[in-house]
Amino acid sequence: MNDMxxxxxxxxxxxPVLRGFLKKMVGTVHxxxxxxxxxxxxxxxGLVGESGCGKTTVxxxxxxxxxxDAGQIVFHARDGERFAVETLTDRNLRRFRSRVQMVxxxxxxxxNPRWTIGATLEAGLKIHxxxxxxxxxxxxxxxxxxxxxxxxxxxxxxxxxxxxxRQRVGIARALxxxxxxxxxxxxxxxxxxxxxxxxxxxxxxLQAKYQLAYIFISHDxxxxxxxxxxxxxxxxxxxxxxxxxxxxxxxxxxPYTRQLLEAVPVAKVQAKRERALIRGEVxxxxxxxxxCRFHPRCPHAMAVCAIxxxxxxxxxxxxxxxxxxxxxxPLPIDGAEFRSDTIAIQSPNENEPSS
Length: 355
Ligand code: SF4
Description:
Layout: E1 4-19, E2 24-40, E3 44-48, H1 55-62, E4 70-76, E5 82-84, H2 90-97, E6 100-103, H3 107-110, H4 117-128, H5 133-146, H6 163-175, E7 181-185, H7 193-210, E8 213-218, H8 221-227, E9 230-235, E10 238-244, H9 245-250, H10 255-262, E11 312-316, E12 322-325, E13 339-346
Parallel strand pairs: 3-8, 3-9, 6-7, 7-8
Antiparallel strand pairs: 1-2, 1-4, 4-5, 9-10, 10-12, 11-12, 11-13
Iron/sulfur cluster (SF4) is lined by residues 254-255, 292, 294-295, 298, 300-301, 305, 310, 327-329.
């Protein structure tokens, strides 16, 4: 069995910029600009960054809610079937979506207010399974039990549920088609902290029970840290740092990752850090800064940073941890420099918009 469930290679997703009464196209926003990563079965990748960094677009591209302009997304199903996402036919897309599901931020908006919870959960089963009515009812009871809701929820409507209960229904709906990968897009962001913790704990339990892989998209590193095996940090459409979660949280090498960490309280971080907020706003992706896109906000920027795009390279930090980072001057760890293996994962300027 192939251990890799997802292979994302150099994907680019652009949206047209329309202006004026006639909606004339005047440019393209590269919301995602050369993103690559792989994900192993049963593992969690945390995809983090500020609002507008492209992380949700990556999730939408994986499940084919948006089309890619370049690159490749390949999903390897448990049974050996291989899905090249950008070339799926309508029929294959339906089968693919029974293996890859999404849990959204706002479960209320994604649930039909006129349907009972039972009807909502049954809808997916009717499309994606061959269970008869009795079996569907049994399956719905199991799903509700799996997400910590009683059988009486079958007859309830979304407006009768709390935010946490609605999100449990959203998770049950995703589970109903027996997926292998679930993309959680800011799935706990709208919940109170105590409810967030319960939902994250539930996701962990379900992962162990069903060998699920997750892509957990969030702006909140504190949330991502608990759930993720690996973390990829995105800034203006690109991954700027990627490594195992512990390494990224304890020893960030990229100044942007360091600033994201400083902006949130993270319980496990023991390294001494200056507390500061990230300077300024995320620049417009329509006209991103030259060179390193983070340079207008980076406290470590040098002249070269505004001119040359740092390549995404793999290397070893001072503590001996492997990581991938895109910075001309990665932060030293315990006084030692990041040593690049000079293997460019993505060449500088590869996807630079032509001016
Ligand atoms: Fe900062 Fe320069 Fe590194 Fe960009 S390349 S993160 S501007 S030090």
